Structure formats: structure tokens, C-alpha cells
């Protein structure tokens, strides 16, 4: 048999066993390097206090809760719609390398990192919160919108005259077909924006996250439980109160709320001062010869240990997420757990994925003390619930094999569903890998020595040049993992049905 040149150059397919072995060895190495010490002398005391707070939440200040909840929604709505508008414009030129590179850069930096940088320019005001969400979301929207437009049915485009300009052809043929998907994806991003908005409270913006952090640090667990319950009351039914036809109303109300919120005045030349401070210190001092030693110290003393800690944390979190997904996806399959069990499993997974991993890590940190344990648990549970929920829905839709001895219950999950969903499982885990790495870096703000820890220290010391350098390292690390993940998926010949659908679990991977 003779092979064509293309066939002889095709890379050999990687089997699941090979990939599992590689990630297993990486997980063992991460375990050896991880900080897994429990530093709290009596975690049960804190647990009892949190449990008592959850059983008797303190709604003594409903005005403060309502105000924080309203601002949480307002930041999310304004930030997401600003990002959607910018992303929509950028999507028309996404094929250009410069625009694509710009979108990759802005979306590879976490919202909390953007907030930390913007605090020095726009201050602790509404503009900081809106831009912190809008900037990374603009890059995400541009990528996804461009893909939706490119995949629209080309039949309408072929009906136009041959000399129709490309932009007119896009606007009049592909855009009308893609509008339903664009709207549905924007509504999903509002759920993500609500999580981001709540977490922005941890850097001082007056959202529900600010109340939660303040009450926990003061050991007022009843008040903290009230803030958490209000947040869940907002995000769990979001598909019911946030409808596309009501979006203009929500946007108008959100703009009005933020306009009434006092904003700190921007100092004269604040932006130029920030840009000047972002230049490495040796260059500002005119000492070009000191640039390389400065870079060497920064990379060796902060970037390298921060990167190692970020990779260690993300690897253990990815392993836990995979374990949670494999264990929990049968919970929402009616043929495995029954109708009542599937409803309870669905509620548990929705709850786990609705609480932001940063917020969940902060809550666990109050019990375990500072180590990698809170971050690993938070990232693993949050991302594992997302993967498990999507796999469970796919498993519930599978047509069972028609056999008299077909397995049931847990045997059905182990011997039929898991083998048939294994390709989707690997694809979803690899999609979430890049997101886990990005979030591992930001969890350094909680005191874990990842890249975020060093970024936060640089911001607190007003060393903008150091913070920008470390953010560049964090973005490059995220992009590197994303590239590696894509290559592994390609070598495994993986595709994940539903990954492009605007559903919470699927669209998050975009």
C-alpha cells in the first residue's frame, strides 16, 4: 500500500492511556512540591461559627445588602455590554493578526488583575469595575463572535452580487443568521460577569464580595452568610430575570445606578503617570546597562517561583476537577439516580459552579489557613462541577444500547456512559486547563505564592513596572498552556460536541 505525502507526515495519534500517564506523573510531581499544610490550630472552631452563621443569617442591614446587590448587577451589566460592543466591532477584523493579538492579550489577563492596574489610574470608582470586566470580555467576545459569523450558513452570502464588498457581505448575509447565537452568548456572559462583579469586591469595589470579605474578617458569620445568600439569589435564577428583551432596561438602570455612585476624581496626568511608571525602573533612571540585571532579579526571584507555584497549584486543581467530574456526572443522569436524585444532583452541581472559585477559596481559607489547600479545593470543585454538569447532560441524552442485560444504576455510568463520554471528558478537561492556570495565578491575592501574590505585592508597593512585567509573564504562561492544550487535543483527535453552544458549561471554555 502506498501513502500520500500528507498521510506520511500526519502525526501519530496519542491514546488516552499515554495522556493519562503524563498527567498522572505531573500530578505526582506537583504533590511533592505543593504546600499542603493545615496551619489553623482549631479549624473546627471556625467551621462551627460558619455553620451557625449559615443556619441563622443576619439580615440586620437590608439597605446595605440591597445596595451592594444592585451595584453587583450594575457592574456586571455595564461591563459585559461594553465588552460585547467592543468585541462585536473587533470581530469584523479578527482575521487580522494585529487585532487577534490584541484580543488575546486583553483576555489573557484576569479581571482582578485589570482592577488592580486600573486602581492607579481611575481610582476606586465605577469606571474601574466596568473596565475590569469589559477589557477581558472584549477579547473573549471578539473571538466567539468572529467564530459564529464565520460559521453562519454561506448560502445567503452566495446570493449577493459578486462584487459586494466583504464588510457589506458580512453585515447583510452572515450577521442576521448569527444574531440569535450572539444574543444567547451575551446573555450567558452576563452570568459570568455577575461572578466577576461579585469578586471585584475583594479589591475594594462596593459589591457583595466586599461585604462578604469584611464580615468574614470580622468573624461576623451571620452577616457573611446573608451576603452569600443574596448573591446566590441573584445568580441561580439569572436565566429567568435576565431576558434578551429586557436587556435594554437592565442596561439603562445599571448606567443610572453607577452614575449616581460617587467616583473619585482622576488626577491630572494620571494615565501618563501610570504609563511612565510601567517603564522598567532602570530605563526611567537612564541606566540602560541595569536593565538586564533588573530583569534577571525579577525573573529569578519572583517570576520563576511564582510560575512554578502557579503550575503546581493548577495541576493539582486539574486532577481534582477531573476526579470530581468522573465521580459526579452520573448524579444528573435520570437512568442512574432516578428523577429525584437527578434533581438533587443538578442543584448541587449548579451551586458548585455558581460560586466563583476565588470566593470559594476565600471561604475555605478561613477554615484551613493559608496554604494551597483552599485554592486546590475551590478550583477543583468549581471546574469539576462545570465539566460534570455538561457530561451529565450529554449522558442523559445518550440513547442506551438495546440489550436485555443492559447495565443500570452505577454500572450503567461505569460500563456504558463513561466509555462513550471519554472523548468529551478529555476535551473538556483540556479546555478547562487554561482557565484553571489563569485562575491559579489570581488566587495569589489570597496569600498563596503564585504569580498573583507577587503582582499584588508590587501594586501595594506602587511598583507598576514590576506588576506589569509579572502580568506579562502570567499572560504568556496562560497562552502557553492554551497552545499545549490545543496540541494535545489535536494529537488525540478530540472534538467536544456542545463546546460551541451558548450554555454555561460550554461557553465558559470559549
TrEMBL record:
<feature type="transmembrane region" description="Helical">
    <location>
        <begin position="219"/>
        <end position="238"/>
    </location>
</feature>
<keyword id="KW-0812">Transmembrane</keyword>
<dbReference type="InterPro" id="IPR035906">
    <property type="entry name" value="MetI-like_sf"/>
</dbReference>
<keyword id="KW-1003">Cell membrane</keyword>
<feature type="transmembrane region" description="Helical">
    <location>
        <begin position="112"/>
        <end position="135"/>
    </location>
</feature>
<feature type="transmembrane region" description="Helical">
    <location>
        <begin position="467"/>
        <end position="485"/>
    </location>
</feature>
<dbReference type="GO" id="GO:0005886">
    <property type="term" value="C:plasma membrane"/>
</dbReference>
<feature type="transmembrane region" description="Helical">
    <location>
        <begin position="308"/>
        <end position="333"/>
    </location>
</feature>
<feature type="transmembrane region" description="Helical">
    <location>
        <begin position="64"/>
        <end position="92"/>
    </location>
</feature>
<keyword id="KW-0813">Transport</keyword>
<keyword id="KW-0472">Membrane</keyword>
<protein>
    <submittedName>
        <fullName>ABC transporter permease</fullName>
    </submittedName>
</protein>
<keyword id="KW-1133">Transmembrane helix</keyword>
<feature type="transmembrane region" description="Helical">
    <location>
        <begin position="435"/>
        <end position="455"/>
    </location>
</feature>
Amino acid at each position: 500500500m502506498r501513502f500520500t505525502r500528507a498521510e506520511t507526515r500526519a502525526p501519530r495519534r496519542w491514546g488516552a492511556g499515554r495522556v493519562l500517564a503524563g498527567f498522572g506523573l505531573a500530578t505526582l510531581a506537583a504533590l511533592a512540591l505543593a504546600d499542603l499544610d493545615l496551619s489553623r490550630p482549631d479549624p473546627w472552631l471556625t467551621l462551627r461559627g460558619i455553620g451557625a452563621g449559615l443556619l441563622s443569617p443576619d439580615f440586620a442591614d437590608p439597605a446595605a445588602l440591597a445596595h451592594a446587590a444592585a451595584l453587583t448587577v450594575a457592574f456586571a451589566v455595564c461591563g459585559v455590554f461594553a465588552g460585547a460592543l467592543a468585541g462585536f466591532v473587533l470581530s469584523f477584523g479578527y482575521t487580522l493578526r494585529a487585532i487577534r493579538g490584541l484580543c488575546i492579550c486583553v483576555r489573557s489577563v484576569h479581571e482582578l488583575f485589570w482592577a488592580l492596574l486600573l486602581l492607579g489610574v481611575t481610582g476606586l470608582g465605577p469606571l474601574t469595575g466596568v473596565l475590569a470586566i469589559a477589557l477581558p470580555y472584549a477579547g473573549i467576545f471578539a473571538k466567539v463572535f468572529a467564530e459564529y459569523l464565520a460559521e453562519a450558513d454561506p448560502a445567503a452570502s452566495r446570493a449577493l452580487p459578486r462584487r459586494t464588498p466583504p464588510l457589506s457581505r458580512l453585515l447583510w448575509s452572515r450577521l442576521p443568521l448569527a444574531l440569535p447565537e450572539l444574543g444567547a452568548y451575551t446573555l450567558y456572559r452576563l452570568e459570568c460577569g455577575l461572578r466577576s462583579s461579585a469578586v471585584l469586591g475583594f479589591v475594594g469595589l462596593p459589591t457583595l464580595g466586599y461585604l462578604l470579605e469584611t464580615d468574614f474578617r470580622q468573624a461576623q458569620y451571620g452577616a457573611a452568610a446573608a451576603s452569600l445568600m443574596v448573591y446566590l439569589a441573584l445568580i441561580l435564577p439569572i436565566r429567568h430575570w435576565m431576558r434578551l428583551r429586557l436587556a435594554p432596561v437592565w442596561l439603562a438602570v445599571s448606567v443610572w445606578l453607577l452614575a449616581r455612585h460617587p467616583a473619585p476624581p482622576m488626577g491630572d496626568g494620571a494615565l501618563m503617570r501610570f504609563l511612565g511608571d510601567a517603564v522598567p525602573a532602570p530605563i526611567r533612571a537612564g541606566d540602560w546597562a541595569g536593565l538586564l540585571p533588573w530583569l534577571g532579579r525579577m525573573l529569578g526571584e519572583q517570576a520563576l517561583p511564582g510560575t512554578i507555584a502557579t503550575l503546581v497549584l493548577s495541576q493539582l486543581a486539574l486532577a481534582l476537577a477531573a476526579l470530581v467530574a468522573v465521580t459526579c456526572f452520573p448524579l444528573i443522569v435520570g437512568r442512574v439516580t432516578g428523577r429525584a436524585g437527578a434533581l438533587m444532583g443538578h442543584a448541587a452541581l449548579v451551586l458548585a459552579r455558581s460560586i466563583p472559585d476565588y470566593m470559594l477559596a476565600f471561604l475555605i481559607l478561613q477554615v484551613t489557613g493559608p496554604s494551597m489547600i483552599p485554592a486546590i479545593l475551590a478550583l477543583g470543585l468549581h471546574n469539576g462541577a462545570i465539566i460534570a454538569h455538561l457530561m451529565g447532560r450529554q449522558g442523559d441524552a445518550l440513547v442506551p444500547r438495546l440489550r436485555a442485560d443492559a447495565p443500570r444504576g452505577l454500572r450503567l455510568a461505569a460500563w456504558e456512559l463513561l466509555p462513550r463520554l471519554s472523548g468529551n471528558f478529555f476535551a473538556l478537561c483540556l479546555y478547562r486547563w487554561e482557565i484553571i492556570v489563569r485562575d491559579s495565578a489570581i488566587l495569589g491575592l489570597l496569600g498563596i505564592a503564585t504569580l498573583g501574590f507577587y503582582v499584588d505585592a508590587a501594586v501595594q508597593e506602587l511598583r507598576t513596572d514590576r506588576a506589569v512585567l509579572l502580568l506579562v509573564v502570567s499572560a504568556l504562561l496562560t497562552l502557553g498552556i492554551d497552545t499545549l492544550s490545543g496540541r494535545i487535543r489535536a494529537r488525540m483527535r478530540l472534538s467536544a460536541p456542545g463546546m460551541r453552544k451558548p450554555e454555561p458549561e460550554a461557553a465558559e471554555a470559549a
